[in-house]
Amino acid sequence: MSVEKIDYTKELNSEQLAAVTAPDGPLLVLAAAGTGKTRTLVYRVAYLAGRDVSPERILLLTFTNRAAKEMLERAHVLVGPGISGVWGGTFHHMSNRILRRHAPLLGYQRDFTILDRDDSKTLVSNCVKELGLSGKEFPKPDILLGLFGSAVNRATSVQKVVEAKFRDGDVDPDNVAKVHGQYEGRKKKLGAMDFDDLLVNCLKLFREKPEVLGPYQAQFLHVLVDEYQDTNPIQAELVDMLAARNRNVLVVGDDFQSIYSWRGADFRNIMSFPERYKDARIYKLETNYRSVPEILEVANACIAGNPLQYQKTLRATRSSHRKPLVLRMRDGGEQARCVVDQIRNLCRSGYRMSDIAVLYRAHYHAMELQMELARERMPYVITSGVRFFEQAHIKDVCSLLRLLENPSDEMAFMRLVGFLPGVGPKTAQKLWNEMGGRFDTNDSAQRMKLKSMLKSAAKELWLGVEPILETYRAEHLDEDGGEAIFRFVEAFYGRHAVNVFEDSERRLDDIRELILYTSRFDKVQNFLSDIALLTNLDAEAENLASGDGEVVRLSTVHQAKGLEWPAVIVLWMSEGMFPSARSMEESSEGEAEERRLFYVAVTRAKDELCLCVPEVRRTRDGGMMYYLPSRFIDEIPREMIKDVRAGFI
DNA sequence: GTTTCGGTTCTTTTT
DNA sequence: GAACCGAAAC
Q1: Span of A4-13, A520-529, A623-632 with lowest mean pLDDT
Q2: Which of A107, A113, A153, A98 is nearest to A533 (CA)?
Q3: Known catalytic residues of A?
Q4: Residue A524: in which H helix or E strand, if any?
């Protein structure tokens, strides 16, 4: 492969250069925030390509779709189109890709459905009902899923997780385990996997079928892993197994930024890497290009509260600027107005709206601000809580495709017939049972059977949909999902949406957008996998919504990871909000992780940082709740910040 | 017996 | 704003 000459010594600093040009073998790169971690990975890929490692022999694993996309794009710019052969993506993507090939070895069909969080919740809720366990005392589906996930990701039993979490014994571990068993069985019957199953089954495949693992081990000459501190034990083992043969494994991470322990991430993976790979070389990146020294001082001071970590100190390269601002005010309303003022000030001193981000611990922290921004007609985008592909109307139209692709997909069937008048959950269930727990849309006898069971009003509407089922294979709509969705909307869903949704205009626009989006897939199957694994249209949505324009970004700290802005404002730096009361209760590790989260928030800022500290919040019953300033604020040495009362700036 | 509608409650973080 | 619950409507 021909690679244009890259002058590594000129384009990288000495720390980065050492990591990029490191010899084969296990490598641990400890990259502090803003030290060019992505750059290092991308250049490493280029470096390997330049040493005639063919792209399909490189595996690049990331946590988010955004990170994968960014890295592959940058590698593309650096190396050229040949690089597209690299296996790059999230752990879930890789697992999906592998399982689509080998699923039958584990007793699944290749057309298995991927359940997103919503689907899983519905399914768990059904299981609870079936077992007659629904009641006030019994945990909600969301909680149950969390428990199942913890058990699976930490390779322990559900009972143990329940015992650890509900100390006072008001939840019966055996009942939870029963639900779990039921849930597992139902998924199997549906031919469906949830997010965890993708990883677990991939690991199972590797463990039990050496004839499958072997060729992958041989194929991947180099395995590169981004955000290694956020891997859970399953992911770590996947990496270890894939790299076992060639041992060229490069992991990049920053234990200071491990913020996903609640979904099983264990930063001991990164801490123990040198023990598991005795011959590992370790590289540290500590030269920070992002932030002014005043911000880095605060970051270093805050993380000093967490002792058990790799020692890293951020070294500034930028010249001095003003100190971060701690802004104290009475309540959320005042906070919202202050933020608007701050944004105006920043704009006056030359920043663009798109240079500014407002970060917070939880989505609801930004509610008052959203209203204030709307009132002031200040444009903003929010990396949303409700993700594009999880919105009801998107899932509605996809349910048709899901059923067409997987005749066992009961959830899709229920959703689809549930649109018909007079058909609710009970009737839908009855229909499904009558059909024998399977609806092969390609089978005319089955189609007839369904038709004969529908009442007149429902039947009439269904007749509009049926031609799509009939022609799906014949007209190769399985290679053009957009066309199938288009026909569905024309024949039925368009009218349905107008009746059901207040804002049907917007939703139908979304669907049109979705139809365009399908054109990049040559198989509906691939499209469905992709949207299940893609949580938001992220980059696309960003560019579409704003035309790359003048908008403030609102985001959770979690979703801001890996990003940077010239100016960052953090909301609700109050005890109980940030750190969140819940995670502090949950485990003894809670405080340390919240502190890392705060560290992530601080290190997103390049020039300006403003931390808001409201004192009271209205409670539901109309009362007032008083909040102390966050311990993270108190931990910052006073001389490092400018501490002001709102209105006295 | 089901569906549908309207009112109430409570918001962590994500693939 | 969506998920849950209870009561009216079919």
Answers
A1: A4-13
A2: A113
A3: 37-38, 226-227, 257, 604
A4: helix A524-533
Tokens 């102390």 label which residue? A628
Q: Would you say the C-beta of A282 is within 7 Å of strand C?
A: no
Separation between the CA of A368 and the C1’ of B8 (whole angstroms): 21
Alpha carbon distances (Å) from A52 to A21, A49, A79: 14, 5, 12
Judge if the beta carbon of A430 is closer than 7 A to nucleic acid strand C: no
Distant-in-sequence, close-in-space partners of A253: CB < 8 Å, separation ≥ 6: A29, A30, A31, A225, A226, A227, A228, A229, A230, A270
Nucleotides of B under 7 A from a protein CB: 1-4, 9-15
* Angle at the Cα of A244 from the Cα atoms of A44 and A229, rounded to 5 degrees: 60
Distance A621 CA to C8 C1' (A): 29
* CA–CA dist A22, A51 (Å, integer): 12
CA distance A89 to A299: 30
A392 touches strand C (CB under 7 A): yes
Kindly give, in sequence order, each residue whose CB lies less than 8 Å from that of residue A463, ignoring residues fewer than 6 positions away.
A451
A422 CA to C10 C1' in angstroms comes to 9
A73: nearest Cα among A83, A63, A60: A83
pLDDT band at A544; cut points 50, 70, 90? very low
Q: Which of residues 60-119 of A touch strand C (CB under 7 A)?
A: 118
Report, in ranges, which bases of strand C sit under 7 Å from a protein C-beta: 1-5
- Measured between alpha carbons, how far is A316 from A415 in angstroms, rounded to an integer? 55
Residue A539 pLDDT more than 60? no
Task: Tell me how crowded residue A219 is: count the other CB atoms within 10 A of its CB.
Answer: 15
Sign of the CA dihedral with A606 first, then A610, A611, and A616 last: negative
The DSSP letter of residue A631 is H
Distance of C1' in C9 from CA in A395, Å:
29
| Rounded Cα–Cα distance for residues A35 and A329 (Å) | 34
Whether the pLDDT of residue A538 is over 50: the answer is no
Q: What token pair was written down for A451?
A: 């038709």
Residue type at A267? Answer: F
How many angstroms separate the CA of A535 from the C1' of C4?
A: 25
Pick out the nucleotide with least CA–C1' distance to A426.
B2
Using the CA of A260, give the nucleotide whose C1' is nearest: B13
- Distance separating alpha carbons of residues A560 and A551, to the nearest angstrom: 16
Which nucleotide is closest, CA of A555 to its C1'?
B13
What is the predicted pLDDT for the residue at A135?
Answer: 66
Give whole-number Cα distances, A236 to A68, A200, A243, A335, A387, in Å: 18, 12, 11, 42, 28
pLDDT of A601-642, one tens digit each?
Answer: 999 999 999 999 998 887 665 667 788 899 899 888 999 988
Instruction: Express each pLDDT in A223-279 by its tens digit.
Output: 999 999 888 889 999 999 999 888 999 999 888 888 888 778 887 888 888 888 989
Question: What is the Cα–Cα distance from A52 to A371, expressed in whole angstroms?
Answer: 55
What would the pLDDT profile of A189-235 be if each residue is shown by its tens digit? 888 898 889 999 999 999 999 999 999 999 999 999 999 988 888 99
